[in-house]
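Limitations

Structures in this collection are predictions, not experimental determinations, and the ligand pose is part of the prediction. Treat each record accordingly. The example that follows, with 6-O-phosphono-alpha-D-fructofuranose as the small molecule, is included so readers can see exactly what is and is not provided: the inputs are given verbatim, and the output is the predicted complex.
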Amino acid sequence: MPKATGVFTGLLNDIALAAKIISREVNHVGLSEMLGDTGEENSHGERVQKLDIFADDVMRQILHHTGLITCMASEEKEFFWPVPDSFPSGEYVVIYDPLDGSSNIDVNVSIGTIFSIHSKISSSERGELSDCLQAGKHQVAAGYVLYGSSTMFVYTIGRGVHGFTLDPSLGEFVLSHESMCFPDPPRHVYSINEAHYNSWKTGQQLLIDHLKDGGDFSSRYIGSLVADFHRTLLQGGIFMYPSGKGAPEGKLRLLYECSPIAMLAKQAGGRASTGARDVLEVIPDSLHQRVPLYVGNSELVDLAEEFLAEED
Ligand code: P6P
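Predicted complex:
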């Protein structure tokens, strides 16, 4: 049975503990005070859900005193933060989206936590912004937690992708999906929000027209990145969040959405592109930088790049 070896064991176990705590809250949100939003907006102008704050607090509080972390960054916080002086500083950087897709909470649609782990590269004791702004190819680990019909923990440390399912009767994640790979040949499924069709570049429109003309594609779109990616990983296909008018770099954030998803995709035998280049090669210039995302079976990501290149 594959398991995190050596240094990552403690860190991944801590993230798994945070996932269990968040899962418990997600699974009875309708019966608690956690439903709805806080009435505030985050730095991206998005309404903050109560559960966003809870999940963000849990991730920080579980991790920052472990002595494994030098600094952290979150979708919910405008700036990165070094581990407090009261705690020992460690060798790893954890960047995360505590609850991606949180607008789906109130309608009981699957949501997720996404995390990216880098090694510290700066010389300062408690981490610097440069420790966060590393290309995805330098990640040492990446993964997500899917709060769906069951809670799953899916991660890679560069030795394949492995999925664990939470057994509530044990309170433990149990290996259920060993060595996850995109099926080949893939199911012909494309996943995109077609409401934005008129805002896309011509090449993107022609790509979707082509997939429809083929007559053998289905369209599936949940509107929650972790759920849409998880389905794509298990069944095959391609997930796309392209750029468009009003969103020149797309909507999804590089550091805590696209880069970890891209590492998982590569480890599962597929790939992730911005439409022009491999996501893992993009060198971030800011914490909340956005990039377009095309991820799934390599042949379908290649096809997307061909259509987008024709236009250029
Ligand atoms: P749209 C959720 O808000 C999210 O960040 C991702 O989880 C999801 O893939 C995307 O936005 C959905 O965006 O524009 O289709 O609602």
